[in-house]
Amino acid sequence: MNVLIVEDEIPAAEKLERYLKKYSADIQVLQTTTSIDETSEWLKTNQSSLDLIFMDIQLTDGLSFEIFNRVPVEKPVIFVTAFDEYAIDAFKVNSIAYLLKPITFMDLSSALQKLNQMKKQLGDNTLNEVVAELSQRQYKSRFMVKVGEHIRSIKTGEIQLFYAEGRTVYLINADQRKFIIDFKMEDLEDMLDPKEFYRLNRTFIININAIDEVLVYSNSRLKVLPKIGFDKEMIVSRDKVSDFKDWLSGGNSSNSRT
């Protein structure tokens, strides 16, 4: 098995390589890269020789999710990071495992065993086909809501936005009707297609087709105006402006959690 290690901390990379060799003498580390730029360039010309990627998330020049925006990553990825807040974003790409530093040999063994188990379940498929299976993500197509004593099904594509008031979360459909749903905002992020829905801040998730205008707001923020009548201000926080613009223009936004 040929492996790429993406890690900007040399001791951590060396430790990972020692564990890999301990796990199997057949594992070969082809390259260790330390930045988004270096990794993207290396993958453009060498990815075909790879079987698996180990990837830190916070690199010297930003979050490694940017690599997926620059080059099609066709191999399975095991993320190794000191931070737990990126887990949902990791599983929106080719991740098969999410290991928290400092990793142990048991952590590594479990992740590799999981990969081998996936291969067995898929028969004789290659690692590339495992990734294809991972990529065929099924997002929620309908939401069930209660209307009086009745249960109604609403297609996800008809939902204009979701918003939270305290612990209560609502959806608004194309008819501008509001319904309570039994999900947290964090749950919705993992259920919704990130190409169609974006979490503007802690309170709002909007459908791209529901946006009427985007206005420049104070302190380098953006204000989103929906096509439907809605009396609450939807503000894109300053740290998400760049990511939101990328999503709006059709880029592969990571849609980071707030």
Descriptors:
29% helix, elongated, 8 helices, OB fold (Dihydrolipoamide Acetyltransferase, E2P), single chain, 2 domains, 258 residues, five-stranded antiparallel sheet, Rossmann fold, five-stranded parallel sheet, alpha/beta
What does this structure look like?
- With 258 residues, this protein is α/β, with parallel strands linked by helices.
- The chain has two domains: 2-135, Response regulator (Rossmann fold); 142-248, OB fold (Dihydrolipoamide Acetyltransferase, E2P), CATH 2.40.50.40.
- Helix content is 29%, strand content 31%.
- The protein contains eight helices and 17 strands.
- The chain has helices at residues 10-23, 36-46, 65-70, 87-90, 105-121, 127-135, 185-191, 241-248, and strands at residues 2-6, 28-33, 52-55, 58-59, 62-63, 77-81, 95-100, 142-147, 150-155, 159-165, 168-173, 178-181, 197-199, 204-207, 211-216, 222-226, 234-236.
- Strands 2-1-3-6-7 form a five-stranded parallel beta sheet. A five-stranded antiparallel beta sheet has the order 12-11-10-14-13, with no helix packed on it.
- It is elongated.
- The two termini are 37 Å apart.
Computed over alpha carbons, the radius of gyration is: 21 Å
Shape: elongated
Structural class: alpha/beta
Please count the beta strands (DSSP E, at least 2 residues each).
17
By CATH, the architecture of the largest domain is named 3-Layer(aba) Sandwich
Largest sheet: 5 strands, parallel
Low-confidence segments: none
Mean pLDDT: 87
What is the CATH superfamily classification of the largest domain? Response regulator
